[in-house]
Structure formats: C-alpha cells, structure tokens
Amino acid sequence: MAKKYKVRVTLDQNLCINCGTCSAIYPKGYGYDETTGKHKVLPPYNEWTEVDEETLNLLKQAETACPVQCIKVYVEEADEDK
Ligand code: SF4
User: Fold this and answer.
1) For residues 68 and 27, what is the distance between their CA atoms, to the nearest angstrom?
2) Residues in a beta bridge with 71
3) Measuring from atom 4 of ligand 1, which residue has the nearest CA?
4) 15 CB under 6 A from ligand 1?
5) pTM exceeds 0.85, yes or no
6) Domain ranges in the chain?
C-alpha cells in the first residue's frame, strides 16, 4: 500500500535564473518555458495532483536545489491505496 500525496508546485519566474537544475533533477516536472526564457512547472504538477512518494521526493529535491529558492512544493497527504 503505497502512500499517496497531493501536491501542487509553483515557480516564481521573476526569480528564476534559468540554471536548469530543477529540470535536470526531474525533467517530467520542470521544463524550459520558451515564451519567457525561464523554467516552469509542467502539468499536471502546476495544479493539485496525486503523486507517489518517489515523485514527491523528486519535486522536493528540485525545490531544495534551486539556487534562488523560487520553487514551492505544497503537500497534503492523500488516502492510502486500497
Ligand atoms: S532550479 Fe530554480 S533557478 Fe534554476 S531553472 Fe529551476 S526554477 Fe529556475
């Protein structure tokens, strides 16, 4: 019974220096935004979404590693799998 979490991730592009650390850690969660020249949170993680612990850890690793701390990972515990 893997634990599930509800997460939503925000990224302040005004602060992002486009270093690419977040997308190197978790390319499914963070990517280059051609319209702004910065990085962005990729769907579905920009909205509340259910993830497993491994995904949560990757999203949070990027939050921790971002040199300007412009990533925020909001977490709620969801029901466990039946
Ligand atoms: S790690 Fe932070 S500064 Fe670097 S690209 Fe990602 S959001 Fe931007």
Assistant:
1) 18
2) 11
3) 19
4) no
5) yes
6) 4-77
